[in-house]
Specification:
Belongs to the EamA transporter family. By secondary structure, the chain is mainly alpha-helical. It has one domain. About 75% of the residues lie in helices and about 0% in strands. The protein contains 13 helices and no strands.
Length: about 290
Amino acid sequence: MTALFALATALLWGLADFGGGLLTRRTPALTVVVVSQSIAVAVLGVIVVATGAWSATGPQLWYAVAAGVVGPVAMLAFYKALALGPMGVVSPLGSIGVAVPVGVGIVVGERPGLLQLAGIAVAVAGIVLAGGPELRGAAVQRRAIALTLVAAVGFGAVMALIAEASTSITGLFLALFVQRVTNVGVGGTALYVSVRRGARALPEEGGFQVIRAALPALAFVGLADVAANGTYSIAAQNGPVTVAAVLASLYPVITAIAARGVLKERLRAVQAAGAGLALIGTVLLAAG
């Protein structure tokens, strides 16, 4: 079950990140974060009411609040990095945040077997290579790297926090709702401050019409991201965090495949090799 839900997380995150990266090329990143997460709040609110998840309150929800504070910072940094590009810089480096939940798992006493350790090493190498790393370039690329490293640490922290925010399915719904409400609060405040300083909240060309036309895509990004947090929490609660975190971090492979299918970007040899290594690592982890 851990492997299945963790791989579902990778699929959802990979598609959400690809969609978010495309949207931020026309729309300010903060606006993408706030609108997409607001849609997720509305949907989760309905689910919480329908399932009676309001009763699943407790001190563990502070983990959800913390995840909600860290998440928008990580998403904003990541979306800005994706907008700067190239994805060959952003996608592989963004996955190194896996070190945070893996480190937490080891600290709390998890000891992966030899086969799983081999799978982790092979999968992480594949994740990095699947993005087609391009570490040479001008200042814009160095800025993209810096933003991606900030996002990576933030994403890793969110993975660790959300795994501790609930102990049941209804509790998970409430935790995700609290996380997203906090996301919107933090992101909305940042957007307000940004606009007050002269930045734009709407695209330069098309304005609100562009946002309205992009609502389906924004909804997909928000809902895919929240679903990924949910599937990761389930994966981490039903098996070793070290395994769940590594498998969930295969999302750069999905991002690269989406870029190939939608944008017709050609997969470089290093990306194809990375995807193959990631697959081998997945098999080793599952077998272990």
